[in-house]
Amino acid sequence: MSETVICSSRATVMLYDDGNKRWLPAGTGPQAFSRVQIYHNPTANSFRVVGRKMQPDQQVVINCAIVRGVSWSPRPGRSYCWSQTQESQQAGGGLRGAHSPQS
User: Compositional bias (Polar residues) spans (predicted)?
Assistant: First the structure.
């Protein structure tokens, strides 16, 4: 059985630059909204988030698994971020958009 989209939203995908201590737009080229979708694979009972810029090339700006231990936090305005720490490996990202995380 294949993956299915369980929710979709429009947002700017941001990645945290730990060296400079600031958020930067994901991907190359001009900053643009992305179509961010949550996929569910019922066979493996797994989830992942995929974001593609809403431009003709549909550049993939994020494609990562959502695993146990991920924390999701609201930020000022309409921003949300997530982080995950695993045995000396830390990953994280953020979304800024017109919709709440429930959309």
Answer: 81-90
Residue 40 inside a domain? The answer is: yes
- Cα separation, 14 vs 27, in Å, equals 9
Domain that holds residue 23: 4-69
Number of domains in the chain: 1
> What is the tens place of the pLDDT at every residue in 35-84?
999 999 999 999 999 999 999 999 999 998 888 777 767 766 666 666 65
Q: Would 92 be classed as within a structural domain?
A: no
